[in-house]
Amino acid sequence: MRLRTLSAAALTAAAALALAACGADADTSTGTGPATDRATTEQDATDEVAADAHNAADTEFAQMMIVHHEGAIEMAELAVATAASAEVRALGERIAAAQGPEIATMSGWLEAWGEDLPAEADMSGMGHEGMQMEGMDQEAAMAELSGLTGAEFDRRFLELMIEHHRGAIVMAEQERGEGENAEAVRLAGAIIDDQTAEITEMTNLRNAL
Question: Per the structure, how many domains does the chain have?
Answer without folding.
Answer: 1
